[in-house]
Design goal:
heterodimer; A: 458 residues; alpha+beta; Immunoglobulin-like; Phosphatase 2c, domain 1; 6-stranded antiparallel β-sheet; 5-stranded antiparallel β-sheet; 32% helix; 26% strand; B: 212 residues; alpha/beta; Rossmann fold; 6 helices; 7 strands; 37% helix
Chain lengths: 458, 212
């Protein structure tokens, strides 16, 4: 009966059309499913950064995996990017930061190329240029102990020259705080001694900007008023040693020298204490940290200084250091570097010491005498004093300060081997050198945005 | 460069379905967008997301903020908090660089844990592992009344709580985490060390109660 029924032409026609419709519906359903699946699939392309070339290529099986027969990315103009269908690559250099969508137009399996395209929105993030995020807020010139944001000098000192620059770090500019670093130097024409001091005020101490300033200026003052006179005896003893070559005399001379510059270190410490107490009397409200009892702790600062003079055709260096700022010297033919002080660096953070810490003068673990050094050499090419703003970025770890090659790399960096193409030509005029050093000091180093101070004697 | 690693340990158990999990997703989004505007955070902070439900898994490895993409987070299953502590311990071993004489390692990692329930596995093994790792501040947040602050106190002394696990409260928690990461990314450079307790982080908003 069924066969007879199906033989009926009319019925057969209807049956065939039902099957066709069913196939058509199934096909459409399948397409719809694939379109929905792709639209719901969380697709992400890499994030970009403004002004940095961007390139993203979809995985080679991207079409197959998503059951697509064709796709195109549009709407990329706003990102300043283009899409290459052959290589399935988005590329270009985004001009501005942007958090927006672009559109993927696509066809899925089973569709004819002429059919209407589907669209999917895909998020694309263009990050800001990290360098553009830093603010430059001036420090408050009315604040107690304000000091200038940047400072630099270059001058002849006897047979040698000095160029020095101290700059407020980006992290301080960003919040409008002060430069905590400082330096001071002086060449004494009569005695031919030169003294250079560099100090880094502790970021956590409220008036460290003043602490570093006093540490440096008082070092110079005491050296001039007290030490130079006492060093005359050192010179006599040293000359005797040169004549007679007796080790004992050299030891005697060194002891005399250290005694003289010991007074300088003590003076720097005492002066900060004095100014701290005076300030506490004048402006008691400024000392508002209840946990800090010792007023000088508001002025915490490191201190390195070095005095040198050419005596009997030899350069004699007398140095002192507390804190984590290095003093390095490079010999005349640039084949050997030497670190003249040891650094107070503690693995667990508690290792830092300051000239404001009274206990440095009586410490058993780190005897005060070990902080002084007498170094004698025929001649030298460079003598460097720097704060950790330079050392952290350029030497990374303390161990590298002991390596000649790292110091030579540092000199090469100064002389032009750097990203900014800044060249310090130490044979050119000093004004130009000072300007170039100031430019060099702005080098970019991720995670290193502290104040920077660098003194170069050459 | 020394990175500041930040691990987010997020409860994605079934009880988080709906508003809470949406709020977590938004929280991460807003946090990352905000940190990307901070010049110090964008350079130093690296973020990882570990979720825990019936198991714990690291769904985003330690990633810098510019390449970080918001993960697809779904809520399901129970609360394997103990396992999450083991996972983060392993991640610290594999991802956080140690300081040697030749190179400066990363800063000690910050860990933020958020849960709305009680652990359904044993906490002890994971806790023993985590205690062996050197970390900066570890903060645990009890979101809503289902979480037990006494349990969280076993993990860290820094416990905060939200009265309800609604979107507003969770958003406040993430805003505070954002501020904490910002502060720390500045502090590591300024002071040369990490924050070690709640007192060194920004004061929490009023929605966030400090559990003593």
């Amino acid at each position: 009966m069924v066969n007879d029924f199906m033989k009926d032409e009319k019925v057969h026609e209807i049956y065939t059309s039902i099957v066709e419709l069913e196939t058509e519906i199934m096909k459409k359903w399948k397409i719809q499913t694939l379109v929905t699946a792709f639209k719901n699939n969380g697709i992400s392309t890499d994030n970009g950064t403004e002004k940095v070339p961007y390139i993203y290529t979809f995985p080679h099986n991207f079409l197959e995996k998503n059951n697509l027969i064709k796709m195109n990315c549009v709407d990329l103009d706003k990102f300043n990017l283009t899409y290459n269908q052959d290589t399935m690559t988005i590329e270009g250099t985004p001009e501005v930061k942007l958090d927006d969508f672009f559109t993927i137009e696509f066809l899925v399996d089973g569709e004819e190329a002429s059919e209407i395209k589907h669209q999917k929105q895909v998020k694309l993030l263009i990050n800001p240029d990290p360098k553009s995020l830093w603010k430059d807020i001036p420090s408050d010139t009315n604040a107690l102990f304000w000091k200038e944001d940047d400072k630099s000098e270059a001058t002849k000192i006897g047979e040698k020259s000095i160029v020095v620059s101290s700059k407020r770090g980006r992290s301080h500019k960003n919040v409008g705080s002060f430069r905590d670093d400082d330096y001071a130097f002086k060449y004494f024409e009569d005695s031919e001694w030169t003294i250079v001091a560099v100090s880094d005020g502790a970021g956590s101490a409220k008036f460290s900007r003043k602490g570093s300033e006093i540490a440096c200026s008082e070092t110079i003052k005491c050296f001039e008023n007290v030490a130079i006179k006492e060093l005359e005896l050192f010179e006599e003893e040293f000359n005797q040693f040169i004549d007679l070559k007796e080790g004992k005399q050299l030891e005697q001379a060194k002891e005399t020298a250290i005694k003289a510059i010991y007074k300088v270190a003590v003076h720097a410490h005492t002066e900060i204490e004095k100014i701290a107490s005076e300030t506490a009397l004048e402006s008691p409200k400024a000392f508002d940290k209840t946990k800090i009892l010792n007023k000088a702790d508001y002025f915490h600062a490191t201190l390195i200084f070095i005095a040198f003079k050419k005596i009997n055709n030899k350069y004699v260096f007398l140095s002192f250091g507390v804190g984590d700022c290095p003093i390095g010297i490079i010999n005349k033919d640039r084949t050997e570097a030497k670190l003249l002080n040891w650094l107070d660096i503690g693995k667990y953070g508690g290792g830092t010491r300051f000239i404001t810490n009274r206990e440095i003068f009586s410490s058993k673990e780190r005897p005060i005498v070990s902080r002084f050094n007498v170094y004698i050499t025929e001649d030298f090419s460079f003598l460097f004093l720097m704060t950790d703003g330079i050392y952290d970025a350029k030497f990374i770890v303390e161990a590298n300060l002991e390596k000649t090659e790292k110091w030579l790399e540092f000199i090469a960096d100064l002389e032009g081997r750097n990203e900014d193409n800044v060249t310090l030509d130490f044979s050119r005029d000093l004004n130009q050198l000072e300007e170039n050093l100031n430019n060099w000091m702005d080098f970019w180093s991720k995670g290193n945005h502290d104040d920077r101070t660098l003194a170069i004697i050459f | 460069m020394r990175r500041l690693p930040v691990y987010l340990l997020l409860d994605t158990s079934g009880s988080m379905i709906g508003e809470p999990i949406e709020a977590v997703r938004n929280g991460i989004q807003v946090m990352v967008n905000s940190l990307r505007q901070n010049p110090q955070a964008i350079e130093t902070a690296f973020l990882s997301v570990i979720t825990f439900n019936s198991t714990a898994q690291q769904i985003v490895p330690l990633t810098d903020l510019t390449t970080f993409q918001i993960p697809d987070i779904r809520a399901t299953g129970v609360t394997a908090m103990g396992q999450a502590l083991s996972v983060v311990s392993n991640c610290i071993d594999n991802e956080v660089a140690k300081t040697t004489a030749e190179s400066k390692g990363d800063w000690k990692p910050m860990i933020f844990i958020m849960t709305d329930g009680m652990p359904t596995d044993s906490l002890q093994n994971g806790l023993n592992e985590l205690n062996k790792r050197r970390t900066a501040v570890v903060v645990a947040c009890a979101a809503g009344s289902g979480a037990d602050t006494n349990v969280l106190k076993k993990i860290t002394e820094n416990v905060v709580s939200l009265d309800t696990a609604d979107s507003q409260s969770i958003a406040k928690f993430f805003a505070w985490v954002t501020a904490s990461i910002s502060t720390s990314s500045t502090k590591v450079e300024e002071a040369g060390q990490e924050a070690s307790g709640l007192n060194e982080l920004p004061p929490p908003p009023s929605e966030l109660n400090i559990v003593v």
